[in-house]
Amino acid sequence: MGHSTAKLSLDDFPEPEQVVRLRAQLLEWYGRMGRDLPWRRTRDPYAIWISEIMLQQTQVKTVLPYYQRWLIALPTVTDLADADLETVLKLWEGLGYYTRARNLHKTAQAIVKEHGGVFPETARQLQVLPGIGRSTAGAIASSAFGRCEAILDANVRRVLGRLLAVDDPPARAEAKLWEISQRLVDPQAPHNFNQALMDLGATVCTARSPLCLLCPWQADCLGRRSGEPTRFPVRPARTVRSEIAGVSVLIECQGKFLLVRRPERGLLAGLWEFPFVESVGGGEPEETVRMAFGNRLESLERLGQVEHEFTHRHLTAQVLWARWAATLDELPDCIEHREHAWVAPEHWPEYAMPAYVRKICRLQCLQ
Ligand code: SF4
């Protein structure tokens, strides 16, 4: 591949010839090794935007079927703007981080209302829209409109941080990494260059064990030369997950189960779940449930326990089944003012539910 051994550092970065070489090496590698992904075969800003939002925090192989289903159900930005939120959340179900789905919906409506259904072309205009950060804006502007805009997602941050052995504290490194990304992006091929950077991070310069011997930048990379590439860039301190513990109760009445909708804001906003009672003081689950629902719950039975990791929280839910010894119209006091529905198990799939609730559904093959 003819790598030069010229040293690269932030003080002299970028030497114009180094930039030219790095671009050429990366694009040559991408031509051979780049992944063939459906959103790379289109210039439709809507499809590219959907893929970019899905790919935030989620791996390509998980995203692929969701992306395809989404574009069949809602092929244009107007279709998304006109869809009801329930449909949007249902299409998103299982991808996690549901704020992304809600922001897609809001942004589609803003594009239709404020831009006549036509996507803005520059990263600066795109960034104003809900849920579109600087990097996503750069990706859409470069991929859909061929603009010379930089990106800096987690993969790119890692590759560039290692290439230049950036060891500043995370807040300061961020500005440097943006500058490096902006200087490196190839004005002749911004789309391919940015996609190549993402691929390099995803397949070669991986978080735990970078495959430096397969890397087109191995000769210039300061991280590799340090012998400890995984030290770069310095990561923010880990946030400690807080614990949520409680009881999910499957309340049955006439073959139907009570579902309640979570509030429009906060964790898992707008999704449906079985009534969940947080345990305080660590009592027995039956006791916790009786305190919340009173004595119209009968035949309490333990079905098991599920655990789930959210970004900053860990949930442990004991699962109980109970019979509701009243009619469908007489609701437990603690539910009365919440959006709710009595639903037979065969209709549960029609409700957008978070992953931890799906785990509950699978506990006893209730579905
Ligand atoms: S040489 Fe190694 S550490 Fe440097 S960019 Fe390539 S894979 Fe990453």
Automatic annotation (TrEMBL):
Matching InterPro entries: A/G_AdeGlyc_MutY, DNA_glycosylase, Endonuclease-III-like_CS2, Endonuclease3_FeS-loop_motif, Endouclease-III_FeS-bd_BS, HhH-GPD_domain, HhH_base_excis_C, MIG/MutY
Cofactor annotation remark: Binds 1 [4Fe-4S] cluster.
Alphabetized CDD domains for the sequence: ENDO3c (cd00056), NUDIX_DNA_Glycosylase_C-MutY (cd03431)
Cited Pfam families: EndIII_4Fe-2S (PF10576), HhH-GPD (PF00730), NUDIX_4 (PF14815)
Keywords: 4Fe-4S, DNA damage, DNA repair, Glycosidase, Hydrolase, Iron, Iron-sulfur, Metal-binding
Enzyme Commission number, as recorded: 3.2.2.31
Cofactor(s) it depends on: [4Fe-4S] cluster
Domain HhH-GPD residues, every copy: 54-203
Catalytic reactions on record: Hydrolyzes free adenine bases from 7,8-dihydro-8-oxoguanine:adenine mismatched double-stranded DNA, leaving an apurinic site
UniProt similarity note: Belongs to the Nth/MutY family.
Functional summary from the UniProt entry: Adenine glycosylase active on G-A mispairs.
Protein name: Adenine DNA glycosylase
Organism of origin: Gloeobacter morelensis MG652769
